[in-house]
Write a structure and sequence with these properties.
The structure holds three protein chains of three kinds. Chain A is an alpha+beta fold. Chain A folds into three domains: 4-121, NADH:ubiquinone oxidoreductase Nqo5 subunit (Beta Polymerase, domain 2, 2-Layer Sandwich); 168-208 and 497-550, 2-Layer Sandwich (Enolase-like, domain 1); 212-456, Cytochrome-c3 Hydrogenase, chain B (Orthogonal Bundle), CATH 1.10.645. Helix content of chain A is 38%, strand content 19%. Chain A has helices at residues 4-12, 37-46, 61-64, 106-116, 212-218, 225-230, 237-252, 258-286, 290-311, 331-356, 359-365, 373-378, 384-387, 395-398, 419-442, 493-497, 501-505, 513-519, 545-550; strands at residues 17-24, 27-32, 51-60, 66-75, 80-89, 94-96, 119-121, 172-176, 188-194, 197-204, 320-321, 324-325, 461-468, 471-479, 485-491, 530-533, 540-543. The N and C termini of chain A lie far apart (52 Å). By secondary structure, chain B is α+β, with helices and mostly antiparallel strands. Helices cover 37% and strands 18% of the residues of chain B. Chain B contains six helices and six strands. Chain B has a four-stranded antiparallel β-sheet with strand order 2-3-5-6. Chain B has a two-stranded antiparallel sheet with strand order 1-4. Helix content of chain C is 29%, strand content 15%. Chain C contains five helices and six strands. The longest helix of chain C is centred in the middle third of the chain and has 13 residues, at 68-80. Chain C is globular. Classes of the chains: A alpha+beta, B alpha+beta, C alpha/beta. At the A-C interface, helix 5 and helix 9 of A face strand 1, helix 2 and helix 3 of C. Strand 5 (108-117) of chain B pairs parallel with strand 6 (148-151) of chain C.
Amino acid sequence: MKNEIVDALSERFPGSIRGVTELRENLTLLELGKEDVPRVVEYALGSLGGTHMTMAGTDYTASLDQYVIDHVLGWYDRGLLLVLRTRVQKGDESFPSVTPLAPCADWYEREVKESLGLTPVGHPNPRKLLLSDDWPDDLFPMRKGFKNEAPPPLRRDAGFTFNAPEDAGMFNIVPYGPYHFAIHEPIYFRFHVDGERIASVDLRAGFNHRGLEKIAETRMTYETVPFIAERVCGICGSVHAEAYTQALERAAGFEPPERAKWIRVAILEMERIHSHLLWLGVASHMVGFDSGLMQFWRVRDRIMFLAELLTGNRKQYGMIVPGGVRRDIREDKRETALREVSTILREYEELFDAALRLGTLKARLEGVGPLSEADARRLSVTGPLARASGVSMDARRDYPYEAYGQLEFETPVRGEGDVLARTIVRAYDTFESIKLVKQALENLPGGPVHAPIEYIPPDVTSMGLVEGPRGTDVHYLITGGEDTVYRWRVRAPTYANLPAAPLMLRGQTLADASVIIGSIDPCISCAERVIVVDEASGRQRLVSGDELRGWRA
Amino acid sequence: MSGILKLLKIGVTKGRVTRRYPAERTPTPEGLRGRPVLDFDACIGCGGCATACPANALTVEEGEKTWTLRLFYGRCLMCGLCEEVCPKDAIRLSDEYELATTNREDLEVELQLLRVACSGCGKYFTTRRVLEETAVEYSELAGGYSDDFRDVITLCPDCRRRKWGETIADAYREARYES
Amino acid sequence: MSPDEAGKAKKIGSSPWVFHVNTGGCNGCDIEIVDTLTPYFDVERFGIKRVSSPKHADILLVTGPVTRQSYGTLMNAYEAAPDPKLVIAIGNCACGGGICHDSFTALGGVDKAIPVDVYVPGCPPRPEALIHGALLALGKADQKITRKTYREDDNGEARAPV
């Protein structure tokens, strides 16, 4: 059973697989030549039904005169992970692109190109992804030799080439970005619109690329990386800290103490609750239901106060570190927490019941921004976005970690694939989360909450998978010597989900654009302020977000 | 009951939850991680906090005769690693969170300690307080503040290594002549 | 508060309109800013209103370490906001670069791009701290911390006879 996938691949591509290594139970590494990778990935994702998890490029030119590119594929139904490793020699920095055969590799290859200088040959669209537009094309920050000594000159107006459809002349262009009313980072969408209907979409991300992976490789140690991991995202920070810690502990073959595992579950689920309530509030605001924003966030603040009581801070808890957790939960605080969780459940139930009876809310969300199951699988999207389109995937259930194997919970799945389905999936996710926090706190085992990790071997490839509120967060780690990581690659779930935005927006109305983009629950901001250009007259008109929300199809 | 009426009912029954900040001091839970406070008398100048700090909010500048610790609240994550690491409890997280200032200098705390010179080569090698602390800790092992003890402990690591090397060499020579 | 800032605060008076600029942070501070609008903190009782265009703003709330990509939009927003205006840097990344102060792709703090009137550190700062910062900018609250320096005295008492 374990090697069914490997066997199928060996049978289909005899001679292509140069080596098979069992890194760990259910984590297998296959060595491939770079010419073979595109077809193998296509077959694995298409015929064998895998999901693309992440891809990372690492600079080994100092020791091995080569770069290593790893594609990581997963099979949720079998709990398997497969690493497809290929090497690019120094002096011949190019490799055949996987994107024409498997579109979900699009963004990863663009990133490898701009940060390491490895060219994906045949990539349809190799523009900059995360680095700023004024960053020189021949400076590669993720190479080990890059030192941040002399920053390149800053330019305010370096342009980005947006893609346009062939008949672009017929459409008006609506730049949609980069500031939003609430939260999140900026992102810049450009819509080609025909009246009110969106014909095509392109987007420019990278506004809050801060180079955290590079900082972790150079300045941080194993103990301090969780603190920078937490700050990858201010909403789902613990998910990143947990994924990194999981990857590191697995590399060391270390099992944290039982009590630490249960406390970690409680923290992660509390974060899920706060994140979903946040989203429900913001989604309500986007469709004009401001009472929903205020009420959902009122309930959400109770979780924040609880987090402050248990961890010392409302956000960025600083709790999950390699070895266990940093603070124990004292008995009186545990009882307060249980009471609070019951209150939150009651208030949330009340609110949920009221909100879903609102006919206008349903009307705004039903049938909007659809994503078919086939598209969801093809793009390897994850989390509630995938589950609302009928793809059942949940890392807590399929790749069990911490104490989830001993807990009871369900994973809601819907088939309609529209914004209403995503709302319902997240709403039921919240109920399950509350149930999980209760179970975790009620059944906390005794014992220590932290144990020292004796030894972390260098040069170990390891993976950490955590189901965050937005989907599966995948951390890829190669341990280094001297207490530092050699390569740490964070793949947040939004990275996999955002490329689905152009698909979901096509044919929809401009007024629904915010809620569609918002329904991905992106860890980046959608813009609210929009400039409408009337191509005929050339006049520009500033449209405020409130006006935009008032437009009806 | 329709959705709107239910919402109205929720709004009315919950009433007002607003915290009357700043008219009233809002409750701070026990264990809130606020800004770290330095105890200037307790700090010995070991630099452990600066090594542990993930955000480089605590930095050490080693001059020739002075050792300066700077804490910049503008970068402090209030994670508490410095508190965990400090051997003298000289830095502790308080529960103060109102840290807004109109200029950057007000966010800085500076602590300057004196360094001592090696009794052998005259090079400044550690802070006076670290030396005193080491003396206190090891004087018992050494049987008190004898002259020999003082001679050794005021040597910089290089001179101490040299002295230890000479001691071994002497012992070796003696052993050879004896046999 | 410097006389210059006091003058600006006086002209702005009460009920300022704020525009929020995110220059590439993690969103923690941004969410706490939105949280101040929600029932537990309700910053609108001070008349503070969020606007969707910098041209209507009296106060710019800036978060994030100013990534290279967002530098242009920050400068556009700053220049679009009419004088007198106040700039409040919220959160560690905005005050001094935070944990990513030495990133190759971020400037390391808002004051590296535009002049800052009030710094509100924290990671993320509590909503009460944000309200305190806003009121400080308007001259309606006092600063609670000041710079502290300590120099060891050469003639101080030795702790051990060495």
